[in-house]
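Quick illustration, no need to memorize.
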Amino acid sequence: MNSVVSEAKNMTDMIREMYIVDDNPDFHFLLYKAFKQFGGQYAMKFFEDGKVLHRHLNTLITQQKSDQLPGLIIVDLNMPGMNGLDLLKALRQQRAQTDTYLNEIPVVVMSSETRTDKIHQCYQFGADAYIVKPMELENLKNTLQGICNFWLGRVTAN
């Protein structure tokens, strides 16, 4: 097996951490239950609002710990404090100002918001995808599996 194929295989075998930003502890529990059914393929870290996540990302970048950045960020739109749109704006601004690893982290908005203008704003401010939040465990599990397969299952060549 050549080194590129071997390296790609190692990358796909790694457990990729994702950050989930949502202020609802009940939804955290539902996500936890759904991910538990995936048999430990994915690691999660929860944040209660965008400000806490943004601060954490800045700390990792400042301390040059880019290897600890997540493979995916899933963010709710409607939260107190720094909401999902504010977080997208902050990340987009930071992405534009620096050539950091933040550019490579996909951000998926998962929200119960269905207004078209809000969804368009999310894409305008840098969301990679927008998904209406499923509230039943089986639907949530299927949606999360699709998100993870697409965003964390891919290997990019640099």
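The first helix runs from residue 3 to 13.
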